[in-house]
Specification:
Elements: H1 2-21, H2 35-40, H3 44-47, E1 48-54, E2 57-70, E3 73-79, E4 85-92, E5 98-101, E6 107-109, E7 118-124, E8 130-131, E9 141-147
Antiparallel strand pairs: 1-2, 2-3, 2-7, 3-4, 4-9, 5-6, 5-7, 8-9
């Protein structure tokens, strides 16, 4: 009887903690981008779609649409929640690089992407880089070849 009472008490105490762990993080108030990232991409917050924690680090999710692919050069438009372009960028991807498709949540070789496909790109909170999935190591980032961050509106 005593062990049942202890178990019940432990379960009741755990319920509020579960709710906290599942709360949704905000792109506006729950992530602080690195100074290097926000200086280079001041409009990034407008394109952020989600924030999650992976391996103890916050990651921001950005949706992008493929505009062009030439070999291992991938040009994308980052899009906001209303599917409007916010920024344009060209990445160099490695031959073994994969991306996550936005609607299907499946991985696909970056070298096989077609114009118009929508992908997901992740950015870690405290370091500079673009990745195919949250929690990826530094060696799995996409190298930026060009972007329109210097353009004025």
């Amino acid at each position: 009887m005593r062990s049942t009472l202890k178990l019940t008490a432990m379960l009741l105490m755990a319920v509020p903690l579960t709710g906290v762990a599942q709360q949704q993080l905000s792109c506006v108030k729950d992530i602080v981008y690195s100074q290097e990232f926000i200086t280079k991409y001041p409009r990034a917050a407008a394109a952020c779609n989600e924030v999650i924690v992976s391996k103890g680090e916050k990651w921001a999710r950005f949706n992008a649409e493929v505009k062009d692919r030439q070999g291992y050069h991938l040009t994308v438009d980052f899009i906001d929640d209303h599917d409007r372009p916010v920024a344009n960028m060209t990445f160099e991807v490695t031959p073994d690089a994969t991306v996550t498709l936005r609607d299907e949540h499946q991985m696909k070789p970056a070298a096989k992407l077609q114009k118009g496909e929508k992908i997901v790109v992740w950015v870690p909170e405290k370091r500079f880089g673009f990745y195919a999935e949250p929690g990826a190591s530094e060696s799995k980032h996409f190298a930026v070849l060009s972007d329109d961050s210097a353009k004025k509106e």
